[in-house]
Amino acid sequence: MEGERQRPSLLALGGSVAAALAVSVLGWLALVLSAGLAMGSASDADIATALAMAGAAALSGIALAGLALLKGRRAAVQVPALIGVAANGVLGVVALVFASSFHW
Q1: Does pTM top 0.90 for this prediction?
Q2: Taking the CB of the first residue and of the last residue of the chain, which one, N or C, has fewer CB atoms within 10 A?
Q3: Per-domain residue ranges for the chain?
Q4: Is residue 100 within 8 Å of 48, Cβ to Cβ?
Protein backbone atom coordinates (compact mmCIF):
# COMPACT_ATOMS: atom_id res chain seq x y z
CA MET A 1 0.00 0.00 0.00
CA GLU A 2 2.92 2.32 0.48
CA GLY A 3 3.73 2.27 -3.23
CA GLU A 4 0.23 3.33 -4.27
CA ARG A 5 -0.27 6.97 -5.14
CA GLN A 6 -3.36 8.58 -3.80
CA ARG A 7 -5.40 10.28 -6.51
CA PRO A 8 -6.91 13.65 -5.71
CA SER A 9 -10.61 13.46 -5.07
CA LEU A 10 -13.13 14.82 -7.53
CA LEU A 11 -14.50 17.08 -4.80
CA ALA A 12 -11.09 18.64 -4.15
CA LEU A 13 -10.47 19.27 -7.85
CA GLY A 14 -14.00 20.60 -8.30
CA GLY A 15 -13.37 23.01 -5.45
CA SER A 16 -10.24 24.22 -7.18
CA VAL A 17 -12.18 24.84 -10.38
CA ALA A 18 -14.96 26.60 -8.48
CA ALA A 19 -12.37 28.78 -6.75
CA ALA A 20 -10.79 29.62 -10.12
CA LEU A 21 -14.13 30.66 -11.57
CA ALA A 22 -15.01 32.69 -8.46
CA VAL A 23 -11.65 34.46 -8.65
CA SER A 24 -12.34 35.17 -12.32
CA VAL A 25 -15.65 36.82 -11.47
CA LEU A 26 -13.97 38.95 -8.80
CA GLY A 27 -11.26 39.90 -11.28
CA TRP A 28 -13.80 41.00 -13.87
CA LEU A 29 -15.54 43.10 -11.21
CA ALA A 30 -12.22 44.74 -10.34
CA LEU A 31 -11.60 45.43 -14.03
CA VAL A 32 -15.02 47.02 -14.42
CA LEU A 33 -14.33 49.06 -11.29
CA SER A 34 -11.04 50.30 -12.75
CA ALA A 35 -12.78 51.30 -15.98
CA GLY A 36 -15.42 53.18 -14.03
CA LEU A 37 -12.74 54.91 -11.98
CA ALA A 38 -10.90 55.86 -15.17
CA MET A 39 -14.04 57.47 -16.58
CA GLY A 40 -14.58 59.42 -13.39
CA SER A 41 -12.23 61.72 -11.59
CA ALA A 42 -10.33 59.09 -9.61
CA SER A 43 -6.63 59.30 -8.94
CA ASP A 44 -4.15 57.19 -10.86
CA ALA A 45 -3.37 55.24 -7.69
CA ASP A 46 -7.00 54.16 -7.33
CA ILE A 47 -7.13 52.99 -10.94
CA ALA A 48 -3.80 51.18 -10.60
CA THR A 49 -4.99 49.41 -7.46
CA ALA A 50 -8.11 48.10 -9.19
CA LEU A 51 -6.05 47.00 -12.21
CA ALA A 52 -3.56 45.25 -9.93
CA MET A 53 -6.42 43.40 -8.25
CA ALA A 54 -7.70 42.28 -11.67
CA GLY A 55 -4.23 41.13 -12.69
CA ALA A 56 -3.70 39.24 -9.44
CA ALA A 57 -7.10 37.58 -9.85
CA ALA A 58 -6.18 36.53 -13.39
CA LEU A 59 -2.87 35.00 -12.29
CA SER A 60 -4.33 33.13 -9.32
CA GLY A 61 -7.30 31.94 -11.38
CA ILE A 62 -5.01 30.57 -14.09
CA ALA A 63 -2.91 28.83 -11.45
CA LEU A 64 -5.93 27.25 -9.72
CA ALA A 65 -7.61 26.13 -12.94
CA GLY A 66 -4.32 24.95 -14.41
CA LEU A 67 -3.63 22.86 -11.32
CA ALA A 68 -7.06 21.25 -11.59
CA LEU A 69 -6.51 20.70 -15.31
CA LEU A 70 -3.18 18.96 -14.74
CA LYS A 71 -4.39 16.82 -11.83
CA GLY A 72 -7.88 16.00 -13.09
CA ARG A 73 -8.41 12.99 -15.30
CA ARG A 74 -12.17 13.26 -15.69
CA ALA A 75 -14.08 15.37 -18.16
CA ALA A 76 -16.21 16.65 -15.29
CA VAL A 77 -13.10 18.45 -14.03
CA GLN A 78 -11.22 19.15 -17.25
CA VAL A 79 -13.99 21.02 -19.10
CA PRO A 80 -14.69 23.56 -16.32
CA ALA A 81 -10.95 23.86 -15.73
CA LEU A 82 -10.43 24.75 -19.39
CA ILE A 83 -13.20 27.33 -19.10
CA GLY A 84 -11.50 28.72 -16.00
CA VAL A 85 -8.13 28.97 -17.75
CA ALA A 86 -9.73 30.67 -20.75
CA ALA A 87 -11.77 33.13 -18.69
CA ASN A 88 -8.80 34.10 -16.55
CA GLY A 89 -6.52 34.32 -19.57
CA VAL A 90 -8.89 36.73 -21.28
CA LEU A 91 -9.13 38.70 -18.04
CA GLY A 92 -5.35 38.98 -17.88
CA VAL A 93 -5.06 40.11 -21.49
CA VAL A 94 -7.81 42.71 -21.11
CA ALA A 95 -6.26 44.03 -17.89
CA LEU A 96 -2.82 44.30 -19.56
CA VAL A 97 -4.23 46.06 -22.62
CA PHE A 98 -6.20 48.47 -20.46
CA ALA A 99 -3.18 49.18 -18.26
CA SER A 100 -0.87 49.74 -21.22
CA SER A 101 -3.32 51.97 -23.08
CA PHE A 102 -4.12 54.12 -20.05
CA HIS A 103 -2.38 57.52 -20.03
CA TRP A 104 -0.65 57.54 -16.66
Answers
A1: no
A2: N
A3: 13-101
A4: no
